[in-house]
Amino acid sequence: MLPRSLNKGFTLIEVLIYIVLFSILMGGGFITAYQMIDGSRKLSAKDTLQEEGNFIMRKISWALTSVDPTVATIPSAGTSPNLRVTKYDGNQIDVQLNGTKIEMKQSINGSTFRPITTDNVSVSSLQFTYITPVGLEPAGITAAAVINGINFTITKYMRK
């Protein structure tokens, strides 16, 4: 029989405890890595949505800049899903919702509508509301779009 000091090694219980501890650590590591990757994906999708919505609102703001309020603007009253404005330089701009895409057409660039949204987003609603002038306040147009369930709004006032 060997002396107790020469008997080195692990018992079966110790090995099982180490395996369980190692499994718990690895499982926690895998869960943390998955949550980080999933969070990154969701953040990227949210950033894309925000960028797309801001781009659309800037494009509509551009369309409403230098609009001649004496020439027909649609909607002339109430709310409409389509917009037609004429700028002081004579350029007529149309904006419409076609399915899940917002499209824009300029009279100086041709007569076909071109999408200003990408396949990354889905537009479920687009509304233009005419703001009637009151007293010295100018007329305006509010554009509201629902993109992937998020509301985007812009109001532009027309100066004479």
Which strand order does the major sheet show?
1-6-7-8
Low-pLDDT ranges: none
First CA to last CA: what distance? 108 Å
The 3D shape can be described as rod-shaped
What about the largest sheet?
Answer: 4 strands, antiparallel
Q: How many helix segments?
A: 1
The radius of gyration is 30 Å
Number of strands: 8
Percentage of helical residues? 25-40%
Q: On the 0-100 scale, what is the average pLDDT?
A: 85
Q: Helix/strand/pairing class, anyone? A: alpha+beta
The secondary-structure element order is HEEEEEEEE
How would you describe this structure in keywords?
four-stranded antiparallel beta sheet; alpha+beta; single chain; 1 helix; 160 residues
Quick recap of the structure?
The chain has one helix spanning 12-64, and strands spanning 79-80, 83-86, 92-98, 101-106, 114-115, 123-131, 140-147, 150-157.
Account of the protein in words:
With 160 residues, this protein is of the alpha+beta class. The chain has a domain at 55-157. Helices cover 33% and strands 29% of the residues. The protein has one helix and eight strands; from the N terminus they run αββββββββ. It has a four-stranded antiparallel beta sheet with strand order 1-6-7-8, covered by helices on one side. The protein has a four-stranded antiparallel beta sheet with strand order 2-3-4-5, with helices on one face. A hairpin with a 5-residue loop joins β2 (83-86) and β3 (92-98). The radius of gyration is 30 Å and the shape is rod-shaped. The N and C termini lie far apart (108 Å). The model has no long low-confidence stretch (mean pLDDT 85). InterPro entries: N_methyl_site. Keywords: Membrane, Transmembrane, Transmembrane helix. The chain crosses the membrane at residues 15-37.
